[in-house]
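Field: COMPLEX_INPUT
Field: COMPONENT_COUNT = two
Field: RESIDUE_TOTAL = 347
Field: MODE = joint
Values follow.
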Amino acid sequence: MKPANIFISRDNGESWSLVEGLAHHPSRPQWMPGGAGLTLHTILHDPDASERLWVGVSTAGVFFTEDGGQTWVPRNRGTRMDYAPPEHSYPEVGQCVHNLVRAPGAGDVLYQQNHCGMYRSDDGGQAWVSIEDGLPSSFGFPVAVDPGDPDTAWYFPLNGDSKGRFPPEARPAVWRTRDRGASWQPLRNGLPERAHFTVLRQAMCAAPGGALYFGTNTGSLFSSQNAGDSWDESLRHLPTILSVEVAPEA
Amino acid sequence: MANPHCILIGTTKGVFLHDATGGLSGPHCDGAPINHVIGDGEQLWAAGGDDWLGRGVWRSDDRGASWTRFDAGLSLGVPRSKGSGHWAARAMRSTSG
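Field: COMPLEX_OUTPUT
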């Protein structure tokens, strides 16, 4: 939401309260709006400890709480700002995080798509390492992780923030790593040979068993049941797709 | 083509559900822009709104057949909160599932 804030409900969603620990964070005067405004767009939580949360704010970066939102600390070490002077490329806050996912299993493995790079953290965001070598671009929005394999993740690189925000060379591909970002494989089988669509921030998700889905700003839903090895266009002509998720089994 | 899942799709014109039989329903949630829609057990949650509608959270207790909008407290300057529960922002996250 804009301006960036998080709310909590304890009555099944019927009423909400502002989480003031983030609203009044000491670094807040340094937070700057991104192209979509000052937005809090991503919330992760530890499934084994609901008081542990990560949020993504553009453009302030990643923040973490382990006391249910009363206090928050930045978690941006190792993520850069290419648009800042070189001596200010790695600040404590101010990064333009685009999306975060938490890998399954023990530990706090996170994957991040940033305005300036793709990253992985093995310690809940205390330190991030760049994993963009081998990808055709450092820019994009969505990231998904295999619910059954913390080493497997998917990104959808776009050609850049001011070049149209479509796939590099207009050749759509989901890029997959099976080794935590050490190497990458483009997955194009079944996708259009040429297209100028964008895949927005929350518009890609993975489900157990190799299911992977993404939606486009042109209203198409693409589906894969083999971890991205092949794709079908399941739907077309929807409105601009902002998010894609799989519903829990009935 | 049918998929083995029910897919929750948030769009600029409401929520659409693409079920495992290949069916499509929607737009739900008053046709409002929905930034994120998630499932949590039997319940579905959507968050969005715009400058005309105001921000809101929609909840479905019947797997998307009907939705109820809530907005109480979704403004700035309301009392401090503690504890666990559902978290709303531009995205949605439930801590109960």
